[in-house]
Amino acid sequence: MINVGIIGSGGYAAGELIRCLLQHPEVEIDFLYSQSQAGKKLFTVHEDLFTHPHITFTDTINYEVDVAFLCLGHEHAKPFLKAHHFAANTKIIDLSSDFRLNDNSHDFMYGLVELNKSVIPQAQYLANPGCFATAIQLGLLPLAKHNLLKKDVHVHAITGSTGAGQGFSTTSHFSWRNNNISIYKAFEHQHLQEISQSVHTLQKGFDQKINFIPVRGDFTRGIFATLYTESSLSEEELNSIFKEYYADATFTFITNETLSLKQVVNTNNCLIQVQKVEGKVLITSAIDNLLKGAAGQAIQNMNLMHGLPEKMGLQFKANYY
Q1: Are strands 109-110 and 125-127 parallel, antiparallel or unpaired?
Q2: Which of the following is catalytic: 20, 71, 131, 270?
Q3: What average pLDDT is seen over the chain?
Q4: Range of the domain at 48
């Protein structure tokens, strides 16, 4: 069994992580660390988990666990690891943005499975990708592999309210979010850096702009992204490139049909449609931001790091209606 600890256990992504790990046949949860919730029962925060009344949040850490998931806020993981030292053989998977960029200041590997699947099994420290970054990269990587990103890329992506985390803000209140949409961080979203980094890994000379407009949606979970750029290839050629790239992908699928967000919500899947429209390639990419965009992908990485099937603990029954 894999002994697991979760640092920062009260948020949305941590809740999804706990739900998945509780039904993972090869995992035992050792501790759920939370300074703000220490001493409280798990179900008082994640209320659907009332069937596990024996599990309690703690402010004590077992530094000898096999895997530590860091579900802390952005810019909190680095100082946490400076103050807390795990055993030499503990694998660490960070769900924040602290270690995603390759700046030679850390030993974390970037954990986008569809990019780094061959080397993730050897990783000890892993940076889980961002949710927007996951949806957008999966729409771009097949083109980058064939050096086909010759012009600027334009991205419009809408995300559910859980993407903003559990903390309260003006734009997270139900009365503001309901029946409402808005853009934020236009052209300067923090995920742009990791997207460009991954694209450049496959297309070395990539220096075009990725023009990204993030949108707050009036729904709870999911990301629906549309991307387009110029292309001289036919729709058949483009689809062939995408199907070849994802031929061995466990959770990423190409469809010829018009897709919808509900097809992927409550799953670890990414669904992609590729179309050719008047000299442009139009790519639609949809994921669940809390699963494929966070907790599900983290478990997918953990499975690879332990030689387990990628799907283990990630087989869901989606509720379409």
Answers
A1: parallel
A2: 131
A3: 92
A4: 2-128+294-305
